[in-house]
Known about the structure:
- With 248 residues, the protein is of the alpha/beta class.
- It folds into 2 domains: 14-81, CATH 2.40.240.20; 88-245, Alpha/beta knot, CATH 3.40.1280.10.
- Helices cover 29% and strands 27% of the residues.
- The protein has 7 helices and 13 strands.
- The chain has helices at residues 31-40, 99-109, 130-143, 158-163, 182-188, 206-214, 230-245, and strands spanning 14-16, 26-30, 48-52, 57-66, 70-81, 88-92, 114-119, 151-152, 156-157, 170-174, 180-181, 194-198, 218-222.
- Strands 6, 7, 8, 9, 10, 11, 12 and 13 form an 8-stranded parallel β-sheet that branches. It has a 5-stranded mixed β-sheet with strand order 1-3-4-5-2.
- Helix 2 packs across helix 3, helix 2 (99-109) packs parallel to helix 7 (230-245) and helix 5 runs parallel beside helix 7 (230-245).
- The chain is elongated.
- The chain starts with 13 loop residues before the first strand and ends with a helix.
- 31% of the residues are buried.
Amino acid sequence: MPATPAWPPQSTPRLFTSEMLVEGGSIRIDGPQAHYLATVMRTKIGDPVKLCDNVSGEWLGVAEAVGKRDLVLRVERLLRAREIVPDLWLCFAPIKKGRIEFLLEKACELGAARLVPVLTRRCVVDKINHERAMAQLTEAAEQCSRTALPELAELVKLPPLLRSWPEDRVLFFADETGGEAFAKAAEARRGQPAAILIGPEGGFDPDEREAIRALPQAVGVGLGPRILRAETAAAAALSVWMAAAGDW
Length: 248
């Protein structure tokens, strides 16, 4: 006998919604999401859509009505409960457009729980479009099958970040002057709440580096013998920590 096709199929589109999802309920989709479903994915009545509310998990929705500007989806059943995300923050200096998109996308794909943009003295970029960044994180989560959106904090200057740093959270900072091998440092502190701090394209200045090192929770780490761009360093550091934590 022929195998029964998987339902919903792997190609089913995924969307995050701000509405709480409940079995048997219906939600209306409009705006860019409706355009994506109706025009790009050519969703028809009866077609499946995977829905996430960032609270309960991933649900199976089925199109009940498809209009020119909106769709109505019936929520049928829970497919997956919201995932448990490793307790890792990524603190990063804002970088140029194009590269910041890469950093946000990879941070989401690699499982960061919270992203904290940090303003340092050598930052070329001194702001971040929070709404646009959150949209990019949402799109990345939809594509990589995350059921939990990363939290995105507001931009903060480095000194107040350090002053308010949680006592129980280790801060691994990528120190271009050298530090512990990150894989060994992460393995030695496995199980602790953690964060990674990546500096700007010009690195931390000496005073900033001294202030970071003065933080009891800070651990300077090296990311190998080669000079990495800020977005590459972020992806590399996240990968090393996730491997040490057993997430991979």
